């Protein structure tokens, strides 16, 4: 049996998958409708929508399985292979394929012989899972069949895009409060388990009301978008960035000690300064920040970190003398 390789963009891919906030959620009719349709149209034993997580295959929707479990090992999965390609991954007869002939899902239940999976692609071309067909008998898969599966795959991607929009801030295209809470909760749990450090940066823009009052709300929106770009450039792809609402932004920095956090904050200040010089919009994007080191004994949840971060941010804002727009 061949264990599937990891894509070159695995870290980014996993981050994109987690941003969907779809893992370990309840069944949804939007996906069940697709798997029912796929099973009926192709006449296969099983149809599934699967997400390929770091070490597991998690099933969002399935028809024909008849078992309670919703996750399987990625190492034995067919879908782990399917996400490595750009088009449909087809195995006409698993017993005739050296990669799968001794796979436990071939030798045991559900006795897979035929498999066809279309990768499901979201942001930045990340393949987060598959819409797949499984049958207990070998079969061919015609060009017409492949075209139909591609169409169903596009429908599944559209449903995932709708899911993603519920966790993304429409203006800045970073996580909204709901998305940030979901992603950062997972990241914190991982830090707890691995005993890794984490810090929360709680930002609030200074003099934002004056920008809106003097230049209008459209310019205020551009300032918010600009600050989100500053955050994305300053922090790492593995960090969780979100807009809580209004002019409040947060970042959860994981696996970085106090010294690394200071370096990133210094980098952010330089990027912000350069951004203001280049933009030359008649005002500067300014901010206050509260930084909290994660203490598992004190912080039982991400909400506890947010509360401390908000308090420290407000304390810093209070120490600043009022400034006027230039």
Question: Any overview of this molecule?
Answer:
37% of the residues are buried. It contains 10 helices and 10 strands. With 326 residues, the chain is of the alpha+beta class. The strands form 2 sheets. Strands 3-2-1-6-5-4 form a 6-stranded antiparallel beta sheet. A 4-stranded antiparallel beta sheet has the order 8-9-7-10, with helices on both faces.
The overall number of domains is 2
The amount of beta strand, in percent, is 15-25%
SS-based structural class? alpha+beta
Helix content bin: 40-55%
Number of helices: 10
Q: Order of strands across the biggest sheet?
A: 3-2-1-6-5-4
What is the CATH T-level topology of the largest domain?
Answer: Beta-Lactamase
Please tell me how large the radius of gyration is. Answer: 24 Å
Order of helices and strands: HHEEEHEHEEHHEHHEEHEH
Mean pLDDT: 92
Briefly say what this structure is.
The chain has 326 residues and is α+β, with helices and mostly antiparallel strands. The protein has two domains: 10-165, Beta-Lactamase; 177-319, Alpha-Beta Plaits.
Tags for this entry?
Alpha-Beta Plaits, Beta-Lactamase, four-stranded antiparallel β-sheet, single chain, 10 helices, 326 residues
Write the layout of secondary structure elements.
Layout: H1 10-19, H2 29-42, E1 46-52, E2 56-63, E3 71-73, H3 79-82, E4 89-91, H4 104-107, E5 114-121, E6 127-135, H5 143-165, H6 177-194, E7 198-206, H7 208-215, H8 217-234, E8 240-245, E9 248-254, H9 258-279, E10 286-293, H10 302-319
Antiparallel strand pairs: 1-2, 1-6, 2-3, 4-5, 5-6, 7-9, 7-10, 8-9
């Amino acid at each position: 049996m061949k264990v599937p390789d990891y894509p070159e963009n695995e870290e980014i891919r996993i981050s994109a998958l987690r941003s969907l906030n779809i893992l370990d959620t309840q069944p949804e009719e939007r996906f069940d409708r697709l798997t029912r349709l796929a099973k009926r149209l192709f006449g296969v034993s099983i149809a599934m929508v699967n997400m390929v997580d770091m070490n597991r295959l998690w099933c969002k929707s399935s028809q024909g399985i008849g078992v309670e479990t919703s996750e399987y090992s990625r190492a034995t999965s067919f879908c782990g292979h399917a996400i490595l390609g750009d088009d449909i991954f087809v195995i006409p007869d698993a017993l005739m394929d050296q990669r799968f002939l001794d796979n436990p899902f071939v030798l045991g239940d559900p006795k897979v012989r035929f498999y066809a999976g279309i990768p499901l692609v979201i942001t930045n071309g990340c393949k987060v899972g598959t819409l797949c067909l499984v049958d207990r008998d070998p079969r061919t898969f015609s060009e017409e069949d492949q075209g139909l599966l591609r169409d169903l795959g596009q429908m599944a991607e559209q449903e995932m895009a709708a899911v993603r929009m519920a966790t993304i801030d429409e203006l800045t295209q970073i996580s909204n409060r709901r998305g940030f809470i979901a992603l950062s909760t997972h990241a914190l749990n991982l830090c707890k388990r691995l005993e890794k450090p984490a810090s929360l940066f709680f930002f609030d823009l200074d003099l934002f009301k004056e920008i809106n009052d003097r230049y209008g709300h459209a310019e205020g929106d551009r300032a918010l978008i600009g600050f989100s770009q500053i955050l994305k450039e300053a922090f790492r792809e593995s960090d969780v960035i979100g807009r809580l609402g209004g002019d409040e932004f947060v970042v959860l920095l994981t696996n970085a000690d106090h010294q690394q956090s200071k370096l990133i904050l210094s980098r952010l200040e330089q990027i912000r300064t350069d951004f203001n010089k280049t933009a030359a919009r008649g005002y500067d994007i300014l901010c206050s920040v509260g930084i909290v080191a994660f203490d598992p004994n004190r912080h039982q949840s991400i909400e506890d970190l947010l509360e401390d971060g908000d308090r420290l941010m407000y304390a810093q804002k209070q120490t600043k003398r009022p400034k006027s727009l230039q």
